[in-house]
Amino acid sequence: xxxxxxxxxxxxxxxxxxxxxxxxxxxxxxxxxxxxxxxxxxxxxxxxxxxxxxxxxxxxxxxxxxxxxxxxxxxxxxxxxxxxxxxxxxxxxxxxxxxxxxxxxxxxxxxxxxxxxxxxxxxxxxxxxxxxxxxxxxxxxxxxxxxxxxxxxxxxxxxxxxxxxxxxxxxxxxxxxxxxxxxxxxxxxxxxxxxxxxxxxxxxxxxxxxxxxxxxxxxxxxxxxxxxxxxxxxxxxxxxxxxxxxxxxxxxxxxxxxxxxxxx
Length: 264
Ligand SMILES: [Zn+2]
Prior knowledge:
By secondary structure, the protein is α+β, with helices and mostly antiparallel strands.
């Protein structure tokens, strides 16, 4: 039998944003009213890669875009990637990246994102792992021995202030430095997620199998039976995938009958 296995298009991505700018009377200001805002935050870069292989892609504002605080072009380009994806994956994406892209899409009058199915690695770590910290730095260090590149606020200050003083070359250099950092985050996040796949409690389907017996997470056909899982309504034959180690299951129709009493 011909088996068609199609990995879903899972987009691993990260965005970098520039801070808003405001007038303040005091360093202790805790709330800045709208009237004291000078400039709204805007997106400066994104990087993305498909989970199942391929290079890291990225896009960045240009120095004149920074001067104009204009992120429309790169918000549009990440929006296109997100619309093309079956699933998007980011660290803290549900609370940060997705609403950020939606908000800038709205502000710039661009094509709406539509429904977005997501995997948020921060939520997975928080729910399933009970670690001391769930930020990307600590997960990368703990699991892959990798340190995030150290950034400080001068990175953002350089981008904005050099653009505002029309130092195009200086601004471009600062943008390039930020883009390397952003691309590394996506690469690291993709590697980190792969280490999480066997261990997290629940994951959406990552592979379409077209009716054949393949693992919905990695596409492997090397599956072995691992007992029956019972729910109120159905029985399921459980398997373990010998490649990704997860436990997919399939509903069995031969165990329960319409006349079987249900448990209370
Ligand atoms: Zn598998």
